[in-house]
Task: structure prediction
Amino acid sequence: MNIQEFISIIEEEFDEVEKGTLEASTSFRQMEGWSSMHALILIALVDNHFDVLLTGEELRGLDTIQDLYDLLASKKA
Amino acid sequence: MKTSKISNISIHFPTQSLNNTDLVNLFPDKNEDNIYKTFGIKNRYVREPFETGSDLSYKAAENFFTEFPDFDKTKIDFLIFCTEGLDYKAPTSSSVLHHRLGLNQNCGCIDMPMGCAGYIYGLSLANAMIVSGNASNVLLLVSDIPTSVIHSQDFDLRCIFGDAGAATLVQASEQNGIGKFVFGNDGEGAKNLIVERGSTRAPIDKEWIEEYKNEPQYLAHGKMEMNGLEIARFSLQRVPSLLEETLQRNNLKFEEIDLFVFHQASKFILSALQRKCKIPKEKFYEYYENVGNTVSCSVPIALKNAQLEGKLKKGDKVILLGFGVGYTWGGTVVEWA
Result:
């Protein structure tokens, strides 16, 4: 999965986010309506698509969608 | 070989309730649509002040005797009571319930403070009593009163949890009924969902009473703390393998299951699990919209409603999975009688 596909999946999953508004450099905590619930949604999304169960700590250490994508790429490498 | 079956289930809900309009009145910065969208819940039932787990189970048992008048309650030879809201340190609440219900004195009584996996563990104990030949008619009462340990300002927990009681009759059977069980435990998760204060290790003290003096009963039986993220991670990690192990233990294939009934933890956890385990939506039963997460009662309430809605019929194979506080987990398959 490339970064664009990853971004599309996130946009699909987050109702509040309009399609085409996210970029690799978007900080996910700055996304529209971000709450602790969205951290859960992101963890489940990543688990579902990458079979990787992130910890809260791992997620807290990340800022942008690119950071998250890179972490997943390194875990799957 | 002797087996056991679930004969019937009755439910009781307290009379007070908390709907999303009530919640918005209490938390004016929230809105009803968002509560429903996030939690999928419209209503939860709330105990009366001082109502205990055994009070709710007493009413569920009375409902049972009214609903199934042909059953002679003097036949009950074992009473299992599962709650995290016990009446006393001693005696057991099951003894008190046994007396209130007027059961026969040749009836064993035991308490089980188990939480989210409680119904599965209760069924396993009832099944073991029957299969071993030590009992024939086991009354399994489960009830929980999570609202008694939720701080009035804890919005998320007030949205998620509700109180309830359920009575299940487990009887000896010649046909297939309750199958084999899978159990598991990981005490490292204890801190992620805990009511720490108010019992023996950490009783409440003067400071506690001062801090919570404006709360009902100054939260004397403790305050629930939940790390929602860790509970969700635990569920995503554990439940798919629990499902797999429970099928294997019962020599069944995924496709042979007619209905999947999981502990009704939350909308988020259930939909993530349904997706992850690739369970067809029509076979995945969800029941929390009008009751919330009722802890040990969530599985019997779901079973009762699935039956009433015609989604659970005689001969159907239903897989039951419980998981949560502890962490504890358990699973079994029941052929519906």
